[in-house]
Amino acid sequence: MRKVLMGNHAVSYAVRLARADVVAAYPITPQTQIVEMLSEFCAEGSLDASFIKVESEHSAMAACIGAASAGARAFTATSSHGLLLMHEMLHWAAGARLPIVLVNVNRAVGPGWNVWTEQTDSLAQRDTGLIQIYCESNQEALDSVLQAFRLAETVRLPVMVVLDAFILSHTEEPVDVPSQEEVDAFLARYEPAWRLDPADPRAFNMLVPPEHYMELRLLIQKAMDDALHVAAEVDAEYGRHFGRSYGLVEAYRLDDAELALVTAGASSGTARVVIDELREQGVPAGLLRLRLFRPFPAEPVSHLLAGVRKVGVIDRNISFGQGGIFAAELKAALYHQPQRPQVFDFVAGLGGRDITPATVRGIVGYLLEHDAPPTGPLWWEVKA
Amino acid sequence: MSYAIPERELLHPGHVACPGCGAAIAMRLALKALGDDLVVIIVASCWSIIAGPFPYSSLQVPTLHSAFETGGSAASGVKAALRRRGRPDTTVMAWAGDGGTFDIGFQALSGAVERNEDFIYVCYDNEAYMNTGIQRSSATPLGAWTTTTPVASPKDTPKKDMVAIMAAHGIPYTATASIGYPEDLVRKLQKAASIRGSKFIHILSPCPSGWKSEPEETVKIARLAVQSRIFPLYEVERGERYTVTVRPPAVPVIEYLRRQGRFNHLSVAQIEAIQANADRAWERLLERAESGA
Amino acid sequence: MKSAPSRPAVGEPIVFRRLDDLPPLPVSLAPTLANKTGTWRYLRPFYEEKTSPCNHACPAGSDIVHWIRALRDGELEAAWRTLIAENPLPGVCGRVCPHPCEAHCNRNAFGGAIAIHALERYLADEAAAHGWRPARLAAGHGRRVAVVGAGPAGLACAYHLARLGHVVTVHEAEAEPGGLLRHAIPPYRLPRNVLDWEVSNIEALGVRFVLGSRLGDNLSPDELRGVDAIFLAPGQGRSRPLGVPGEEAAGVVSGLGFLKRVARGERVDVGRQVLVVGGGNTAIDAARTAIRLGAQVTVVYRRSASQMPAIAEEVEAARAEGVEFRFLAAPVAVLLDGGRVRGLRCQGMRLGEPDASGRERPVPVPGAEFEVPADTVIAAVGQELDERTFEGMDLRPEAGRIRIDEGAATALGGVFAGGDAATGEGTVAQAIGSGKRAALAIDRWLRTGRVEGLPPLGVAPHAIERTASPRVVGPEDLNADYIEAVPRPALAERPVELRRSGFEEVNLGIPAEVALAEAARCISCGVCTGCDTCYIFCPDVSVARAGPCRYTINYDYCKGCGICVHECPRCAMSVKEEEGQ
Prior knowledge:
The complex is a heterotrimer of chains A (about 375), B (about 290) and C (about 575).
Chain A: E1 2-6, H1 7-17, E2 22-24, H2 32-44, E3 50-52, H3 57-69, E4 74-78, H4 80-95, E5 101-106, H5 120-123, E6 131-134, H6 138-155, E7 159-164, E8 172-176, H7 180-186, E9 203-204, H8 210-242, E10 249-252, E11 259-263, H9 267-280, E12 285-290, E13 292-294, H10 298-304, E14 310-315, H11 325-334, E15 342-347, H12 357-369, E16 378-379
Helix pairs in contact in A: 1-2, 1-6, 3-4, 6-8, 7-8
Chain B: H1 22-34, E1 38-43, H2 46-50, E2 56-57, E3 63-66, H3 71-84, E4 91-97, H4 98-103, H5 106-114, E5 119-125, H6 162-168, E6 173-178, H7 182-194, E7 198-204, H8 208-211, H9 218-227, E8 233-237, E9 241-246, H10 253-257, H11 268-291
Parallel strand pairs in B: 1-3, 1-4, 4-5, 5-7, 6-7
Antiparallel strand pairs in B: 6-8, 8-9
Helix pairs in contact in B: 1-7, 3-5
Chain C: E1 30-31, E2 43-47, E3 50-51, H1 53-57, H2 64-72, H3 76-84, H4 90-96, H5 100-104, H6 116-130, E4 144-148, H7 152-163, E5 167-172, H8 180-183, H9 192-204, E6 208-211, H10 221-224, E7 229-232, E8 238-239, E9 252-254, H11 255-264, E10 273-277, H12 281-292, E11 296-300, H13 312-320, E12 324-326, E13 329-337, E14 340-354, E15 360-373, E16 376-379, E17 383-384, E18 415-417, H14 420-423, H15 428-448, E19 469-472, H16 496-499, H17 512-521, H18 533-537, E20 543-545, E21 551-553, H19 563-567, E22 573-577
Parallel strand pairs in C: 3-19, 4-5, 4-7, 5-6, 7-18, 9-16, 10-11, 10-16, 11-12
Antiparallel strand pairs in C: 2-22, 8-17, 13-14, 14-15, 20-21
């Protein structure tokens, strides 16, 4: 059924369709509408779940960890400071191998206070062991949440689905909401091999001495490795069920491109418009949209960019003292390629500053004019 | 069998508590009280270690180790999941030290009991961060030595009144308990398990390593804490009805203090002040108990 | 996806050889039993029974703490059997013993001593009511032993010898066995059926009594020579004289003689005023007996009230029954009227320096003489050995006693001795202990030719070997936190007004529920009661029950914290350093 939904509500519908058992959440702009609608669903009975109205995001994730440990399908949503407060528990969720699904609405981090979009909050969770999926549309947000449960429960790792503040979260788009029967056919009930069960009493997450710790960490790494192809399989199967799939990365007009833009999230749509313009002008430009950030799809990325001379990464995030985070990851992935493109790192649109077609055109102009990037990131459209 | 305490043993030997650990006795009794239809959440504390390293566990009940500040929150999640999985009557017990309760886990605990989550929260209180090497917590009593309140500058504020704070949440059941009075402890845990909603049990657990006491005196010291009115045994129902459950003949606080090296430096005047505080708190408790409010 | 691996054998360490062996998350696969925390231990707690003060104080060597424990558990017959393993006369002792066990009872600090004598009497009466009889411990050896004297020492010796399989003949001078129990202790203290029942228990073991057979009279030493061993316990048959002028007069009688005549059922006319001279149990028995004959009785004693050797409760009962006391008064002459007594002249005394007994010596107060009227004067100033008993035997009593060694042996080979004749005037319990010592000595001598392993004189011997540490548990060894100050029960007595008119038993005993409650009040010093305190407080789950009043410590895991030892309410555990430390 097609509905006009804002991104946040698309997520809420997805969580209801996934038949989450436990939702634990704390309000924060711009995520709040996700859990407001979920609490409406629970109150009206259309979602048969326990909604735990915790007193902080830390507790939200801790409650999800408790719930998932006891065998529940658990969900939470947050943003920015809330995600940062959860940080400790994100490590815990991954180390405990719990398939919790988290939606983060990308929002800049204070101070000063800023509620608008930026990816630094989610990218700062890079090393927690969370799988990260970045969405471009409200439809993709709904679809990604459904895929996330399937992926998480298959590889036993938590998944974070990311969408941009306001640009997706509060913007209404037509969204195809699948039927419950269709979703049930895609996503089975969660039945973990181990859970807190008086019939099979076991302890979880105890002290692990050095003699075993590395092996357990290696197993997380292996699960991440598995997640690369499991995510592709889940996406493909989702496509068979619902007619939509996205890939781990999206290649747009990249086949013969000499110049490529790399984006993630909602700015990809803007970039796609500019790529079309460039192609009309005869410029061999293409777009690579990163959908999966963790595990990093190094193999498809380096394959797709193998013949490109220049890559411009639009990083709506910043790792101070280094630069754009996607760019750094991309460079690491390309390092082993015999033919490496020049990678330009454009830090743009922080704190909700608009990334307009003009912004993207300017970036392409810079790429066309320069053969090699400067040392360090290019802070785009900032006062000198 | 002289103690009205269930037979069933749900703690294995081979755990790694220090010799004479009060917290080990507390856990053993709590498990006996609650039986095996139970899930335990252990947050960062001595018990994170005591329970045993991977791939072993000394607890014979399902146990979730969780982060320091998550006693209230993780237990909320566990209870919600058990309800969803058709086990609404399985008891959930969060098990935390004083640091995890009075300090870092205070917020999550307050949140959980404000929501009246259906679980028992047990604080086994050894009055400092023992697992990290005896640093002061807000449960450390006035005048006590710890590694961060050295003898030249011992703890200069009184212990936080955690039971009063919990009672102020208006939860169905709040109680103090002592390993020196095992039947009272077991009865309170069983009573807690029979009540729906949030229950808070505060167990004083002497720590020979941190209190600088003799391991064999652990139970004796726990009892003296009660006898000296330093740690009275009582319960509060619905935040209002106070009942003193054990009233042993009073002994002076010096009998309690002198067995612990952490109080060695106290002057006579300081000991008198501690006595006066204990007497005043006891009188206040009796007034509350007698007024029934 | 992996499934949960099966658990390894309990207590075995888990070894992961390959990455695939590990579970994908930190989950427990086994209990902590592979971690043997016992290696941490440098102090080893252990169960060590110790000696209770009551056991230590009992001259008869009764295992009081154990029979009370059995009684507490409702095991009445087992309790009685433990009781009679050491003492064949519990019905007697439960009534007449001054119970030093109670004086030493650690309960004195917690509500009052356990009424041990009342419990002993309760068990003995239950045994008689049920008809329980003692059994032999060993098959017959065929060795023959002659016992001279059927007082408590002779009865105890005969009993233990018979239990050990010997053939015993007891020669008793009087017409009935019992010695002073029958002839001196009045029936209001010791009903005769109680004594008869307990003597019949000894007969039931095969002991033969030859009555009216008096050594030095109609029993010649030669008649005894055919046996393998002889035990002499003739008692102290002769009353000490007052040593004052006029004591040969009519109306002056000895305490023992008076009591014996009354006990035999003779009608004894003591007149209206009776004076009893002395402060011992015989004096008090005589006074209370005279009261029952309708007399007004005054006890004259040369020392003070607190110095009286008589059992305090008996003195109190005498007072209650109307006996009056003149303390610090020594007789100096019997006043005569014709050949008959009319009174006693006494010397007023005061207390001076302590004498050899440690008591302050009474010294005369010059000019403080007075007279007391009397129809009868009963002299109860002690008994002594009748040396004629040993005529024809090569035994020379020294200082009024037959000298014996630790093994109860006299200077004559094969001749042993005990009771008052050997130890001087003592209590029934002392006589029982003395007779038991001789029985154990004779048994060992007959079987091995040697007498070894008996305690020094003055320490009670035990028929049943004890494993308890000799360390006596004092009040400071107990954990007072576990001991509630519960008062000693009131013991019922026949009302005074009913007592004075007859010889019915004064003490009424205790009902079953009081006996059980009183047994439960026993702290059981040094002896495990199975109270579970060690078990319940073990932080390391290393104490296990191993039967009634028995626990084991699992040293694989015990860390040696010592809480069990420290908490034990009754000092039934100890701690020692681990070897190799």
